[in-house]
Design a protein that fits this description.
This protein is mainly β. It has one helix at 2-18; strands at 21-23, 26-33, 45-46, 49-50, 64-68, 73-77, 83-88, 100-102, 108-113, 119-124, 157-162, 168-173, 176-177, 185-190, 195-202, 205-212, 215-221, 236-245, 252-260, 266-274, 281-287, 293-297, 303-309, 314-320, 326-333, 341-346, 352-358, 361-367. Strand 26 (341-346) and strand 27 form a beta hairpin. InterPro entries: LIC12708-like.
Length: 368
């Protein structure tokens, strides 16, 4: 009996340790004023809602970058919300005492920032002469941050790696430097050092391409993944949710949803591990709750599963080790009102950020 009692205590202790929840605290990093002047970020309000705010705001230790497609410039702000420099439109009327570095963007899409503080900018090719389907908005003429990831029109673009002083390092296409353009880009993820990952679409299939110093090192093609060729494909409709790379480029985690072919209902989600240029997969996790979503990978190989709590007022990040075991939890408690908070995202260095709109400003927070 004593042995059993000790065993029960040990099991309870391990369970409590395994499923404890660490409440993270918000720390404001940047507060960028909204306004209609060249030294602020011009917010566009539709039905009392800001419509042109980027989903993510790339940051370095002291600088954040915001793309303004209305004026075709990228504005760099310091920690105090003061304009530090502008990059882009040669005809932009610069602010006195603030450096402006001219570069003619065709149309600014996603903007990211790498470890050295260089900007990686999606530079859309001019839409002149391009016919759009009836009723579809010309995305080239929308304001900053208003690009859609659900559009059907091909948006050819190149990536420009440019320093904060406007020095262009290289132009990147789908196959590397100075190659053919990307047709559609869903996300840009700078990794460690000169590594860059681009999640994009070619010929109606998603692809994760891995670049280093502008050279293509490998990719994963949706059509080549063995997940779609197993016996499960007879019973389920299998959909790729997303592919997320490890920041060092060692491997990729892929999330897939399984819907019954009989009733078209969600049955489960699986997370697999892949190597670049290999179609073979390794199953790590099966999830029954459709609201639990693969969120990010940490440098140490742990990964987060996003789980919404309290009607959306908080998020529990389930921490899983590299083998898929649930080992811990972190909670992000959004302060009221919840509607002020926008996107939550991570970078290659395990930092979790959230964007908030409050009191006439864009705020960037770090969760610690």
């Amino acid at each position: 009996m004593r042995t059993l009692y000790i065993g029960v205590l040990l099991f309870v202790s391990i369970s409590c340790l395994r499923f404890r929840v660490e409440n993270l605290k918000e720390e404001i990093l940047f507060r960028i004023p909204l306004g209609a002047t060249n030294e602020t970020f011009e917010g566009v309000v539709v039905n009392q809602v800001l419509t042109n705010v980027p989903l993510t705001i790339p940051t370095s230790s002291n600088i954040s970058a915001l793309a303004d497609n209305k004026q075709s410039v990228i504005k760099l702000f310091d920690r105090n919300g003061r304009l530090d420099a502008t990059i882009g439109n040669p005809d932009f009327k610069s602010v006195a005492g603030i450096p402006h570095y001219p570069f003619r963007f065709g149309g600014i899409g996603i903007v990211a920032m790498n470890e050295d503080g260089d900007l990686v900018v999606q530079n859309r090719i001019s839409s002149k002469g391009m016919e759009l389907p009836p009723g579809q908005e010309n995305l080239y003429k929308t304001y900053s941050g208003a690009f859609s990831t659900q559009g059907t029109t091909v948006l050819p673009s190149f990536l420009v790696q440019i320093t904060q002083k406007g020095v262009v390092k290289f132009m990147l296409g789908a196959s590397g430097k100075n190659s053919e353009p990307f047709r559609y880009i869903e996300s840009i993820m700078p990794g460690e050092g000169d590594k860059l990952f681009v999640y994009h679409r070619i010929a109606e299939e998603m692809r994760l391409s891995y670049f280093e110093e502008g050279e293509l090192k490998g990719n994963l093609k949706e059509s080549a993944l063995d997940v779609f060729n197993t016996s499960d494909a007879k019973e389920y409709d299998i959909t790729l949710d997303k592919l997320i790379p490890h920041p060092e480029g060692d491997y990729v985690l892929g999330s897939f949803s399984y819907d019954s072919k009989k009733d078209k209902r969600f049955k489960f989600r699986r997370i697999y591990r892949f190597q670049f240029d290999s179609k073979n997969s390794e199953l790590l996790k099966e999830i029954q709750d459709p609201s639990e979503i693969l969120f990010s990978i940490r440098n140490n190989g742990e990964f987060y599963i996003w789980e919404t709590e309290d009607g959306g007022n908080s998020v529990r990040l389930q921490v899983h080790d590299k083998e898929g075991n649930h080992i811990n939890n972190k909670r992000i408690p959004f302060s009221s009102p919840r509607g002020q908070w926008r996107e939550t995202y991570t970078d290659a260095f395990d930092t979790i950020y959230s964007v908030r709109i409050r009191s006439g400003a864009l705020e960037v927070y770090r969760w610690i």
